[in-house]
Amino acid sequence: MSGVTRCRYPEPTRTRLSMPEQIAFDYDTEEQWRPIPGWEGYYEASDMGRIQSVERTARIRGGGTRTVPAQILKLRTSLRR
Hints:
Structural class: alpha+beta
Number of strands: 5
Distance between the termini: 60 Å
């Protein structure tokens, strides 16, 4: 046995999806977005547990307006105790 290493145990079967497979799975399923009670017009929650802001129009300097697109918010916990 020169230079060959063998495993005494069989290789484990893969039960989790790889990252590209997981991303493809996420895009194949259609998320259903619903307004959050008390925050209608500002935020929506999906059936997958994600939160997104609603597309809105914002005023900018000089009296103009621009459209702010909807964004899925990052998951984070409050730092306040």
